[in-house]
């Protein structure tokens, strides 16, 4: 039984594979593999541990229906043709829950960095300008304490964020979900509202939805215009949820006050993107899960999926549990 791994994962993952007596091939080179190469490697292996979702389309699953498992090194699977995986009998697993706190912290970091213009002022120092303390009215940020955070998609990550900001800063929570989050309502005083109410009533709007046909392009000029001119837009979910050109326009026209993105559309973002030069915009290169502890946990989940899949057992973290195993 052999696994193909398309990038170098944290050491703990290799250790678990060694302990389970599972052989592996790791692609350590740059550039990353294209789809054709990945298919060729997978053809010579029984399982695939994929860092990233690129190329896992219907053709891939048709060509690689022999795979006993595809284990993603991510919680998201929006880029994968799960229907095709299921039709071809390939179980797919992901890494849920282990990155909730790290991603919530990333949203928090963006909120603070944007609200205090921190990156912009840091860059000013590098240009020889000390900035904010020179004049009492110069380069001012905005307080977050006591303000209202609107969470679009109050699931596990959104709830972690809501816990931090309610407990530390007394922020109030509005949320927009298909389902009611009774626990967040009871424990955190979160209030479920319509999208329009959330946009109009929030000082910060933070997106935590999966990318689906429903959420694709959900944030554009129409939504930014419904937000307060003093509001901050945060996206740590998927770049496809916002329309980047319209976000740039909304910031340039001061329709909203600021934006913080950990996900962009496309990724990677071009180095010429105007957002990178804006006073009230902060962009991170998709670092939501990028802590040592979290990546170790993701690696562990992914390998646990591989071990179960190779044995023909149900995956501990399945995306398509309906697939019948035991090839
Ligand atoms: C995920 O796991 O889906 C995150 O976006 C981290 O890459």
Automatic annotation (TrEMBL):
PROSITE patterns the UniProt entry points to: D_2_HYDROXYACID_DH_1 (PS00065)
Entries under Gene3D superfamilies matching the protein: NAD(P)-binding Rossmann-like Domain (3.40.50.720)
Catalytic reaction equation(s): (R)-glycerate + NAD(+) = 3-hydroxypyruvate + NADH + H(+); (R)-glycerate + NADP(+) = 3-hydroxypyruvate + NADPH + H(+); glycolate + NADP(+) = glyoxylate + NADPH + H(+)
Gene Ontology CC entries for this record: cytosol
Coiled-coil annotated residue ranges, if any: none
Domain D-isomer specific 2-hydroxyacid dehydrogenase NAD-binding per the UniProt entry, residue ranges: 109-288
SUPFAM superfamilies: Formate/glycerate dehydrogenase catalytic domain-like (SSF52283), NAD(P)-binding Rossmann-fold domains (SSF51735)
InterPro entries reported in the protein's UniProt record: D-isomer_2-hydroxyacid_DH, D-isomer_2_OHA_DH_cat_dom, D-isomer_DH_CS1, D-isomer_DH_NAD-bd, NAD(P)-bd_dom_sf
Pfam families according to UniProt: 2-Hacid_dh, 2-Hacid_dh_C
UniProt keyword list: Oxidoreductase
Domain of life, per lineage: Bacteria
EC identifiers of the protein: 1.1.1.79, 1.1.1.81
UniProt name for this protein: Glyoxylate/hydroxypyruvate reductase B
């Amino acid at each position: 039984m052999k696994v193909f791994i398309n990038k170098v994962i944290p050491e703990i993952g290799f250790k678990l594979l060694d302990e389970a007596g599972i052989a592996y091939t790791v692609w350590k080179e740059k550039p990353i593999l294209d789809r054709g190469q990945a298919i060729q490697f997978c053809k010579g292996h029984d399982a695939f541990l994929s860092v990233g979702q690129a190329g896992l389309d219907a053709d891939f699953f048709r060509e690689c229906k022999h795979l006993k498992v595809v284990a993603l090194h991510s919680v998201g699977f929006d880029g994968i043709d799960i229907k095709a995986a299921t039709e071809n009998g390939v179980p797919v697993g992901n890494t849920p829950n282990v990155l909730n706190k790290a991603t919530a912290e990333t949203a928090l970091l963006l909120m603070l960095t944007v609200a205090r213009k921190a990156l912009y002022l840091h860059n000013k120092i590098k240009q020889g300008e000390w900035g904010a303390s020179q004049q009492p009215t110069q380069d001012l940020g905005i307080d977050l304490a006591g303000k209202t955070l609107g969470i679009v998609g109050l699931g596990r990550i959104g709830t972690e964020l809501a816990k931090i900001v309610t407990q530390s800063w007394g922020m109030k929570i509005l949320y927009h979900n298909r389902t009611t989050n009774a626990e967040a309502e009871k424990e955190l005083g979160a209030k479920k509202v319509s999208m329009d109410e959330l946009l109009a009533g929030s000082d910060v709007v933070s997106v935590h939805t999966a990318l689906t046909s429903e959420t694709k392009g959900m944030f554009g000029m129409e939504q930014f215009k419904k937000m307060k001119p003093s509001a901050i837009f945060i996206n740590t979910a998927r770049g496809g949820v916002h329309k980047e050109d319209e976000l740039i326009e909304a910031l340039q026209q001061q329709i909203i006050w600021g934006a913080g993105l950990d996900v962009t559309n496309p990724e990677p973002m071009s180095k010429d993107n105007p957002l990178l030069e804006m006073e009230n915009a902060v962009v991170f290169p998709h670092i939501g899960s990028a802590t040592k502890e979290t990546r170790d946990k993701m690696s562990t989940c992914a390998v646990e999926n591989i071990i179960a899949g190779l044995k023909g057992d149900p995956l501990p973290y399945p995306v398509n549990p309906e697939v019948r195993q035991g090839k």
